[in-house]
Amino acid sequence: MSRKFLNMFSLVICALFFVYDVGSAALIRDRNDGHHDEQVVVGPVASPSAADGPVRAMEGATPTWGTQLSKPTGAKAWKVVECDSRKDDAHDCKHAINDDDKTWWQSNEKKSPHYITIDLGEEYIVTALRMKPHKDWDSLGGSIAGHRVSLSNKEKDWTRPVVAYGTWVDDGSDKWAIFEPETARYVRLEATTATRGKPFVIAQEFDIWVAQSVTVLPPDGSLGRWGPTIDFPIVPVGVFLDPHQGHLVSFSSETHDGFPGKNSMSGGSTFTATWFPASQTVTELYVANTKHGMFCPGMAYDVTGRMIITGGQSSFMTTSYDKGTWTRLKQMTYPRGYQGSVTSADGRIFVVGGSWGVDQHQRLPNLPCDIYDPSTDKWEPLLDCNSSAIRTKTDGYPDYRADNHVWLVGWKQNSIFHAGPAAEMHWIDTSKGGAMTPGGQRGKDGAMCGTAVMYDAEAGEILAAGGAAQYEYYKRGGTDTELFVAPEQCLPDPEKKCKAAYGKDATGEAFIIKLPNDVGQLATVTPTGNLNHPRTFHNAVVLPNGEVFVVGGMTKGEPFKDETAQLVPEMWSPIRKVWRPMAPNSIPRTYHSVALLLPDATVLVGGGGLSDHKPAVNHLDAQIYTPPYLLTGRKRPTISKVSASESKVMLGADLSFTVDGEIVGASLIRYGGATHTVNNDQRRVKLVPIREVGTAGEFRYRVAIPKEPGVAIPGFWMLFVLDNFGVPSVAYTVQVLCPGCKQKG
Ligand SMILES: *[C@@H]1O[C@H](CO)[C@@H](O)[C@H](O)[C@H]1NC(C)=O
Ligand SMILES: [Cu+2]
C-alpha cells in the first residue's frame, strides 16, 4: 500500500510578545497551580497554521515534507562518513545515497545497531529522513525496523538528544522519520532491529527533507517544546497506558494504516503497537484472538486497570487488555461504533450512541444504552436510555453522526453526566434503567468532535472546547449511505455547492460546565474565553497543575485531510480562564489523532489518518510535548516512601509519602484511553498536601483521597506533586479501591 505524507511545512516566523504580570498574578495565584500561570500572552501572536499560513505543497502521489534536499554531485556530494557495511563494493554504504534504484546498502552481520552517518556538506534545517526499503523487501528481509535518528553539526558529536526513534512497518512503502526542525549537517541513523529477524539491514536509499526557516521560540521554555518523534508501525488511532507497567499501547485497525477489509465486522482483528519509553523501543503485536476489529471503538478502564474496548468495526465485540494480555469478553447487547463509553462510580462500563449498527453503512439510531458489569462479565441493556435525546441537531448525517463521540462523566450515585457534544446535556441514572433527565444547556449545538475534560473533579468542573456543527465540512456524495465518496463529488464548485448543506467551520467556543451538588439538578454553564484558534478533531489533556492542553485538530473538519490542520496548541488556565498559544508542532494531527498525559507529566500527541482514501494522510508517529513546567531548569520533586500497601488506597483514606523538598500542590489524574477526540475517563482531582507534624528534617506529606466514588472513580490514578514553582513530579501510580465496586474477581 502506498503511503503519502501530504504535509505542509510552515515557514512562518512566530512573533511572540510576553509580559510577566507578576504583581497581580501573585495575588490570585492558586498555590496548587504553580508559578508559570503568571505568564500571559498579551501581544499579537502570529502563528503558523495551515489554515492561515502558506499553502502546503501537495503533489498528488509524491510525498512532500518541507522540501526534499536534492543530492548534489561532484565536490558538494553528500558523503557517508561512518557506516557499517559488508566488505564488498556492491553493498557499500555509498549506495544508500546515490539515487540509484539498482544498488543498495547492506550492513555487515555483526552486532547491532547497524549505523550510517550522512554528511550533507553544509548545515540545513533538517525536518525529516526518508528510507526506501529494497523492492524485494519481502523475500530478502532485513529492512530497517527499529531505528534511532540523531542530528549533529559536528562529525563525531552525538550528544544532542535523538530526534526520532521507533519501529517501521515491514512492508515496501517509504519509511519516514519526521521530527521538529533542527539545524544539522550530519544525520545518523542507527538500525536497532531488522525485519524477519535478519542479522543485517538493507536500505535502498535515504533522503532528507529541509525547511527554509523555523518558528523561533522564546528560549525560556514558556511555550513548551516538541520532540522526540516516536515512529509506530501503525497509525496510533487509539492509545492508552498500561497502568501496571507504564508503557503505552496503541492500535489501528485490521491493517497498519488503512481501513479494515469488508468482511471483518464480526471476525475482525487489530494491529497494535506498544511503546516502551524507558528502552526507547516500539514493538508490534497483531491481536486476532479476540476476533475484534477495534477500529473506532469505545474505551474505558475498569477498577482493576483493565482497558475495556467496545465495538467499532467488529461492532458487537468487547475486548480487555490487562498486563499485556488481550481477552475476549461478552458481546454487547447492541452493535455500535463511535459510541460514548465511560466508567461509572461503581466500576461498571457504560455505553451510549454509536448508532452505526453492524457496520458503518447500516443505521441503527437510538439503540438503548448498555452497561457492562466486570464482576459477572455481563452486559445489561438500560431500556430507559437511548441516544435520541443526546443527538446533536446540526449534522447532515443525523442517523450516522449525531450520537458519535459522546462526552460522558461518571458521577455521584452511579449517575452519568452527558456533557455533549449536543448542547442539551443530561443525567443518566444507571441504577434506574438508565432514566434520562435534563442536565442543562451548553450554548447551542455545534461542538461535534470537540472535547470535554473534567479538570477539577471535586469542584465538578468540566472544560468543553471547540468542535463543529457537523462532523464533516464537506458533504461527501449524494446520499446518506454514500459515505466514502471524495469531496470532488461536490464539483464543479466544491466549496459553494457543498456549503449549501455543509461547510460549517469549527468553533473556538469554550465553556466551563459546573456540576451541581445534587445529581439531577441543572449544571451551571459559563463561557470561558474562546480558543485563539477554532478547531475540531483536536484533543484535550488535563495536566497535573489543572491546566488543559488542547492540541491539533483543524478549522474545517474533514476526515483524512490535513489542509486546514491547526498547528498551534493552546493552554487553558483554570485560574485566569484564558487560553494562551503554545509552541507549534510540525506534524498535523487531525482526524484520528490522539493525545494522552504520560506518567512523566509530558504529553504524547500522535496519529491522524488511517484511510484508504487517495491521497491518504497517514501519520504513523507521535511526538512528545514537554509543557513549560518541566523547562524551568529546576529539579523535579520526587515521591518516595508511599504509605499505600502495594500502591492500593481506599476511597476516603489518607495517603502519605515523602518528597525530597517542599511541595505546595498535589493531584490525581485518572488513567484514560484516547480515541476520536474522546477520553472520558480522564479527570483530575486536586489534592491538598498537608505536612505531617513531627517530621522535622523530612518532607513528609499526607493527602486525603476523596470519599466519593463519583469523584475519585475507582481504578488507577497517577499521583503527582508540585513544588512551589509548579514543577511536577513523575507520577506515582495508585489504585483507588472501593468496597462493593463491581470488579473482576
Ligand atoms: C428513546 O427514548 C425516548 C425518551 O426516553 C423515547 O421516547 C423513545 O421511544 C426511545 N426510542 C427508542 C427507539 O427506544
Ligand atoms: Cu474512526
From TrEMBL:
Q: Which residues form the F5/8 type C domain?
A: 64-211
Signal peptide interval = 1-25
- A Pfam family for this UniProt protein? Glyoxal_oxid_N
Which PROSITE patterns did the record assign? FA58C_3
Against InterPro entries, the record matches this protein to: FA58C, Gal_Oxase/kelch_b-propeller, Gal_Oxidase_central_sf, Galactose-bd-like_sf, Glyoxal_oxidase_N, GO-like_E_set, Ig-like_fold, Ig_E-set
Q: Does the keyword Nucleotide-binding apply?
A: no
What are the record keywords, sorted? Signal
Q: What is this protein called?
A: F5/8 type C domain-containing protein
**Organism the protein comes from:** Lasiosphaeria hispida
